[in-house]
Amino acid sequence: MRLKLYLGERRTPFTVPSHYNYFLQSLIYHHLDAHLAERLHNEGFGEGGKRFRFFVFSRLMGDFQREGDHLRFPRGAILYIASPNSQFLESLMLHLLTQGALPIGETRVPLHKVLVEPQPEYRPEVIFKALSPITLRQTLRQPGEKYTYYYSPIEPDFSERIIANLREKVRIWFGRDIPPGDAYCVPYAVDLQKNFHMINFKGTWVKGWSGLYRFHAPPEYFEMALEAGIGERNSGGFGCVEVYKGAK
Fold first, then answer.
1. What pLDDT score does 109 carry?
2. What are the sequence ranges of the domains in the chain?
3. In the sheet where 107-117 sits, what is the strand order?
4. pLDDT digits 0-9 by tens, 46-62
5. I want to staple 125 with a disulfide (CB 3.0 to 4.6 A). Which of 152, 154, 194, 216 is the partner?
6. For domain 125-243, which architecture applies?
7. Predicted pLDDT of residue 247
8. What pLDDT is stored for residue 143 in this prediction?
């Protein structure tokens, strides 16, 4: 399930920092019950070092103009927030409905309305549209140094890592391992330059790609992709997807 937030007003522009992911993440945590926010932020779900927060959010969807290091939205914007965790969404919605405006950076943006969107019907193969960049990384080491390598969508490891990541999310959330079979997530319409994004998240530059992706997987993977995101850093606003309505 996901929430659809209508932000701003058509005739009243608002401005936010160009790199606003952290501000949106903070907004979400601050509009949850305190004990739930603390548990998600500090513990998450899982065991050992591999833990998930099981929520994801989109970019601000709407026309905008760049003004230095800020973005100006002249006619409002839409923000999607998704999660398989009903307690998370219920708490978030109850807190949001008491607010007339939401803080994004130094700007208080009017909250026009909040809608609940149902889960799309499962299909074995769909086209996903990335509503926020998909990121996958690995820390590599060379003599005397280590660095972060980001996988582009055209690399064979991209699909394998997407599915492996979803398998782990499915295992933790549903409490059992569900083999992916011949699952895949491959580029359908992705321009490596036009769909490339470099986002500053809490001082770290994160690389990711938007675009359209062909996705084939079991129902649990489909559900998890839509409600918890694909790839990594989902709770930081990466890997939010929707079923592409232009696909036949």
1. 94
2. 2-117, 125-243
3. 56-57, 77-82, 2-7, 107-117, 101-104
4. 877 778 999 999 999 99
5. 216
6. 2-Layer Sandwich (3.30)
7. 55
8. 79
Q: Tell me, yes or no, if the pTM score tops 0.90.
A: yes
Q: Which residues of the chain have pLDDT under 70?
A: 247-248
Q: Tokens standing for 141?
A: 């080491």
228 to each of 10, 87, 238, 241, how far by Cα in Å?
30, 14, 10, 9
Instruction: State residue 167 phi and psi, 5-degree precision.
Output: -60, -40
Can you give the pLDDT at residue 140? 87
Q: Please tell me the distance from the alpha carbon of residue 140 to that of residue 159, in angstroms, as a whole number.
A: 19
- C-alpha 47/C-alpha 138 separation (Å) is 20
DSSP 99: -
Residue with tokens 């005739």: 11
CATH topology agreement for domains 2-117 and 125-243: yes
Residue labelled with tokens 């952290």: 22
- Describe the crossing of helices 156-174 and 219-228 by its angle, rounded to 10 degrees: 90
In terms of Cβ atoms closer than 10 Å to its own Cβ (0-12, 13-18, 19+), residue 77 is buried
3-state helix, strand, coil in the chain (%, to 5): 25, 40, 35
